[in-house]
Fold:
Amino acid sequence: MSQECILSGMLSVTGKKVLHMDRNPYYGGESASLTPLDLVFKHFGKEPPKGDDVYGRGRDWNVDIIPKFLMANGQLVQLLISTGVTRYLEFKSVEGSYVYKRDGKIHKVPADEKEALASSLMGMFEKRRFRKFLQFVQEFDENDPAKWQGVDPNAMPAYKLYEKFSLDENTQDVTGHALALYLNDKYMNNPCKELISRCKLYSDSLSRYGKSPYLYPLYGLGELPQGFARQVAIYGGTYMLDKPNLKIRYDEQGKVVGVEDDKGDMARCDVLVCDPTYVPEKCKSIGKVVRAICILDHPIPNTKDAPSVQIIIPQNQVNRKDDIYVCVVSNTHQVCPKGFYLAIVSTTVETSSPEQELKPGLDLLGPILEKFVSVSDLYEPDDDGKESRVFITKSYDATTHFETTCIDVLQTYRRITGENFDPSKIQRQSEDGCQQEQQEQ
Amino acid sequence: MAGRGGAQRPNGATQGKICQFKLVLLGESAVGKSSLVLRFVKGQFHEYQESTIGAAFLTQTVCLDDTTVKFEIWDTAGQERYHSLAPMYYRGAQAAIVVYDITSQDTFGRAKTWVKELQRQASPNIVIALAGNKADLANKRMVEYEEAQAYAEENSLLFMETSAKTAMNVNDIFLAIAKKLPKSDAGNANQQRQQGVRLNNEQTQPSESGCCK
Ligand SMILES: Nc1nc2c(ncn2[C@@H]2O[C@H](COP(=O)(O)OP(=O)(O)O)[C@@H](O)[C@H]2O)c(=O)[nH]1
Ligand SMILES: [Mg+2]
Structure:
């Protein structure tokens, strides 16, 4: 998965020697973008359509299995910049962010003052209260208690903060789920510090490119692991793809000594970083996510034909515990031919008929040409790596952005090296883009 | 930051147009890809060349009559060694040099595989050149000139035998590519790049993009 790619990037730019092995013949594991389209059909055990004209040119498709957007001011963007990986990537803003209300309609999350005034999301008076809340969040400074307006961010629970600004339940849903991007309502009783910083991240991200706080890479998310991989290679790391049946070898104390491939060749190492699928015996399941990848030949109804959107269905609005997410990308992000749209609907599984749980999201899409549904387990390490020196990342959760992924990456980096990732320690490459003039006649 | 680009002229006069192109090198490990780049960009050759160049890409300009062609040259960074080159590498490339070693038939076979891969995956208008490198080792030759030339003709590739060691045909092959590349605005890398945004820190831009943007 791409946490390992990010970690190899961080470790190699700070001077570690990295060997990266992957059982798949492509980079990024679950975070790869599948191409051509036939591969998507095969991945989900379906027969690809005969003939070339049904879905356009197969290789114009780059289909993510797990949908995620980047927060424009979020941690992944910081990591891409500090490691220099950003030079291999191009991004585009996601056009709009929408939130679903009990009335069955979707409403645009206002991107500016003007949109806020015109919004049907809340009434006039509520808008005023909401604005006060946003102002408070924006001006909040953790280090300056004078500006706290009597709020102790470390003690006051989130719901109390809402009460303080007299926000109604509907506005709380919009704030907690469409702005702070909480998956469920467990945060309500936690100190409001996190709610404040999440809201801040949303508005800081929004202010970077304007249309929405979200970015998405051209050609799909699979570009991210590839970009990190190239950077590692430039810093002297070695890559081996297509290595099935890797066996991890330990010494008598249970400390990792190396990895053996199916020919019996052993690569020795002091530290091993991997995702849960390589060491199921060291992991525990913490739940399941259901995802439906849908091919459409039209934009999502009621989004002003936006070529890319995110729709959040807050759990309360559909009587669930966890939110449902809809991510839509299309030809402007080079993930499919013109005229097609890719919508991924996902949520945390709560019942024994997971696909049914996606219905509120699927219902928003209009006619669906093709649907690929999958349920995947979420794993978390059951071994902190202290003794074994095996550092395991978490499975991708149901969130539709990379913030939790980055927290995992930064924490794992600290577990491995014993220190925080410090971009100032990156060894810059002197030859970068050097140039000479040469005349030829 | 700006100003180190191809538009620089000693007398300050800027004439003609500047086109920027992404060029990638492909081929088996140890055929001399990095050496060709080093020879072309820096005029150097190392007998015991470290296998990677250690830069994201190098740039070099070639001046044709009224056009300055600026190559953004991407080396494999060794990712070809275990067949682990990512599609991202040749994405958006307008030119490719597929390299083999004239003293090894295997590397010629591998070069053909790369040509096929490019024809399948890369932009349809990509200009491909085939380079039979290490031409200075003619006494150990295993791939005949005529054989490679016939293959190149069949597949509409530019073809030259080169030597990074003696510099034979190194500038020439880049020049031949520069001539063949479409100079209309549509074929210009900068144009295609406008599509998306590149992320950067507004305040502190590291040296990374120097002259390349
Ligand atoms: N004799 C000779 N040796 C060369 C030539 N080009 C490269 N080499 C040598 O071949 C080896 C591999 O070169 P390198 O550029 O690292 O190959 P790469 O793996 O394709 O990038 C090095 O030892 C070079 O010195 C050439 O034109 N002639
Ligand atoms: Mg090389």
Notes: Residues B 27, 29-35, 46-49, 51, 133-134, 136-137, 163-165 surround guanosine-5'-diphosphate (ligand 1) (CB under 6 Å). The domain at 112-209 of chain A is CATH 1.10.405.10 (Guanine Nucleotide Dissociation Inhibitor; domain 1).
